Structure formats: C-alpha cells, structure tokens
Amino acid sequence: FAVAKRLHAGWGMNVLYTEQVPRPEADAELKARRVELDELLAESDVISAHVDLNPSTKGMFGAAQFKKMKPTAVFVNTARGPLADQ
C-alpha cells in the first residue's frame, strides 16, 4: 500500500492491484481498482510484486505471465527472488 500511495501521489499513476482480500482503503484513497492478475498484467506499465514467498507464490511470474505484459512494461520483484521463474 505504501508504494502504491507514493506512485499515485508522486507521479499520478493509476493503481491496479490483485489480492485475495479487497482493500477498501486503497480503493477510496488512491482510486485503486482490484483486478484479476491477467488484467493487471495486460494493462500495467509498471508491475511491482510485493508478496511473501510460499509454495503457492513460488514461480508466480514465469514465461506465460511475462507474455501477457506489454512489451514496454517494467517488472519490479521486491519480493523473494524465486517469485519470478527466470
């Protein structure tokens, strides 16, 4: 939420997020929109991953997900390395 606040306030970025539980405070304060991962991948110019590493998130980003991104999209993995399958 802190990174989204800075990107929205500092650069006026629209914020999309995917999460199991909705974040009404993000929706209200940042005019953020909760979407499914595929929509987030297709629409985003910058994707910043902030999730814990566990069996369900290991390899969460791989070839299939990167193909869904815009060719100019920037992926920032602030989580544990194995989140992205390089």
Q: Summed up, what is this model?
A:
The protein has 86 residues and is of the alpha/beta class.
Question: Could you explain how this protein is built, in words?
Answer:
The protein is an alpha/beta fold and 86 residues long. The protein is built from four helices and four strands; from the N terminus they run H-E-H-E-H-E-H-E. It has helices at residues 2-11, 24-30, 37-43, 63-68; strands at residues 16-17, 33-34, 46-49, 74-77. A two-stranded parallel ribbon has the order 1-2. A two-stranded parallel ribbon has the order 3-4. The longest helix has 10 residues, at 2-11. The termini are far apart.
Task: Name the helix and strand elements from N-terminus to C-terminus, one letter apiece.
Answer: HEHEHEHE
Q: Given the C-alpha coordinates, what overall shape results?
A: globular
Strand order of the largest sheet: 1-2
Largest sheet at a glance? 2 strands, parallel
Radius of gyration based on Cα positions:
13 Å
Gap between N and C termini: 26 Å
* Structural class by sheet pairing and helices: alpha/beta
**Portion in beta strands:** 5-15%
SS elements, strand count:
4
Query: Fraction of residues in helices?
Result: 25-40%
Q: Give the number of helices.
A: 4
Mean pLDDT: 89
User: Which residue ranges are poorly predicted, with pLDDT under 50 across at least 5 consecutive positions?
Assistant: none
